[in-house]
Amino acid sequence: MSSSNQRHFVAIDMGSNSFHLMIAREQDGSLQILHKEKAQVQLAQGLSPEGYLSDEAIGRGLECLRNFSQRFSGLCETQVRLVATHTLRVARNRDKFLKAALTVIPYPIEVISGHEEARLIYSGIAQSQVLAKHNLIIDIGGGSTEVVIGEKNQPVMLSSLRCGCVSYNERFFSDGQLTLSAFRAAQTAADKQFSSLSKDYFDGRWDLVLGSSGSVKAICEALLESFGDETVTLPRLKELKLKLVQAGHVDALQFTNIDKKRITLVPAGLAILISFFRRLAIEQLEPTPAALREGVLYELAQIDQSQDIRHRTVESIANLYHVDTKHGARVRNTAMALFDSVADSWQIRPFARLLSYAASLHEIGIHINSRAYHKHGAYIIANSDLPGFSQDLQQDLAMLIGNQCKKPQFDTINALPDGRREVLVKLLCLLRLAILVNLGRVARSLRLSCAVLDTNELAVIPEQSARVDLLLKDLKREKKHLGQLGLILRLDSELPSPADED
């Protein structure tokens, strides 16, 4: 389908520190991101104590919008939404900016409330990953911090606090000095903001705590460079604070993967995040890449939020690569029937969806080339944007698809951690068997049954109608391949007969 026949959607998030542009198109009932761009406009730095935006800040904002408009001005069937947050909420002369903006980009700018900002942030995250039953989300912006309680995909409590990395940088770290007293002052101010939250926020029983946007991302990068991982806990945040204090000045901070302009805001963001952990008794936080702009984009496109995110992703990518969905369904049904017969004995019940996704998408690589299609499929999965899939889940899916036929990649599979390797080898066994009995692409699959004999030993018994020479030959080859992965297949000819048992 040519781009001229597709609907395009453009979201522009005008934050206090950065402006963000996202362009997407509708593709098979889902959104395909075409372009992302960020510009550090630093609008909040041009806000006077009296609440007026300087001409320089207004000029930076207008220039950014002018550049952004050039990215999508030639697209057809385009819907555009611009939202502005804290700085334009509080700027007394915001009308001056809004009127001038219409001369450079012909779309109205919505100055949204703090609660609406929080709702859109949660919506964007819910559209991009699988959420738990009880969720707590924090988004540290340039001028405000949004904190949201959610039940699965629905936000139930929305709050916007007057603390942000730009405003706190101006208040407590404007001279660049990184001292314990400066951090204490910033944390005390943040404590007052968090203490104003309703009692619901102090429940502490969170299944998932997420942090979005630039400040949390920068802090995670700093943790990774300083300590070797992105684990966000209060002790680790305090360690990072001490490292910043030891550096003495913001100019002495060296973080390879953080933009220099963002580095100056890390101390303020860190003080706010430490206060969040302390006041709300948070044990651990995970970063999430989604934020306000994703919420704006998905609502603009009216994508159904009630549908399971991963299911929607699998359907979308299957349609995108023209997968034979009927054949995929036959393989999936066979795989899940085999799975049900062994799942409890092998203790792999929690991995049912992973096997189902792999079976549904196993032929995705044929769209590139039927030769070595399993390798092409693995590449597509490993390098695609898959909303709802964690990095590990995406890698596991790519591994299953890439090893569905022919000789498995023994070195790669054997290098996996033991527990993960055992599960994936068993899922791979079921996937390969399901593909084998459906190779003829007929409406009715050949049938076989499985029974667990031991932890790593499986009996495979074709039904009488399935005792064809090619299948038996294929099963013997599978026995050899899987045996090299430590999983023993026992074909029915190798099993003791009832008479032998007597």
UniProtKB/TrEMBL annotation:
Origin: domain of life: Bacteria
Gene3D superfamilies: 3.30.420.40, Exopolyphosphatase. Domain 2, Hypothetical protein af1432
Domain Ppx/GppA phosphatase C-terminal residue range list: 309-478
InterPro entries, sorted: ATPase_NBD, GppA/Ppx_hydrolase, Ppx_GppA_C, Ppx_GppA_N, PyroPPase_GppA_Ppx
Residues covered by the Ppx/GppA phosphatase N-terminal domain: 23-301
GO biological process terms on file: polyphosphate catabolic process
Keyword Hydrolase: yes
GO MF: exopolyphosphatase activity
SUPFAM superfamilies found in the cross-reference section: Actin-like ATPase domain, HD-domain/PDEase-like
Keywords: Hydrolase
PANTHER family hit by this protein: EXOPOLYPHOSPHATASE
Protein name as catalogued: Ppx/GppA phosphatase
Species assigned in the record: Shewanella amazonensis (strain ATCC BAA-1098 / SB2B)
